[in-house]
Write a structure and sequence with these properties.
Blueprint (H helix, E strand, L loop, with lengths): L6 H4 L3 H13 L4 H17 L3
Helix pairs in contact: 2-3
């Protein structure tokens, strides 16, 4: 696998990194799942801030 675009998340938010990385892998195989994973990771990231 190539380097993820989301490695910057790995140190501070490992769960968000895993979801974002999974979404990255699914983008061409299953776009609907990719959207779901992106939304889930962003909701988790925003929930940790508020």
């Amino acid at each position: 696998m190539t380097k993820s675009n989301f490695t910057f998340l790995a140190s501070k938010w490992p769960e968000m990194f895993q979801l974002a990385q999974k979404a990255e892998l699914e983008v061409f195989k299953d776009p609907s799942n990719c959207c779901f994973l992106c939304r889930k990771s962003l909701e988790g990231l925003s929930a940790s801030h508020f």
